[in-house]
Amino acid sequence: MYPRIRCWAVQEGASVQDSPYANKTSGWIKVEATVNAPNINTTQADLEKHAKDRKYFPQRLNTFILASQASKDLAEKYLDEALIEAREIIVKGTTTSRLGSCCEIREIKVNFYADGSMGVGLLEPDEHYSEVGGRFEQVKKFN
Fold this sequence. Notes:
Elements: E1 16-18, E2 28-31, H1 44-54, E3 57-58, H2 61-75, E4 81-85, E5 88-90, E6 96-103, E7 106-113, E8 118-123, E9 132-134, E10 136-140
Parallel strand pairs: 4-7, 6-9
Antiparallel strand pairs: 1-6, 2-10, 3-10, 4-5, 6-7, 7-8
């Protein structure tokens, strides 16, 4: 659907799966639409507590992709957008987001680049960094 993504995580046969805690209900999906990742410098346990306290679900990779494309259309920036200049990735001041999707036993962190491609890396549950946050989604029921 978005050919510019060019990322292993969305290729056929990729082993990325939603967390068992991912949203399994229907309704409108509300997401945190900030370009830079919210909930910075948190571990997986920190994010799970935050989600439980607020009745959120960890954001799924598919939701992140759709929200990023909407952000680009509406705000002219992808979520967690890093610049690419002269084939060099400029990451200073940019963020990545831990999601509720995983590859084998590791969580994934994602970001988009200004050219529409997407980067995916792996994190251990206890890893945390000042430039890595976490994103959530919330289900709003149909009336």
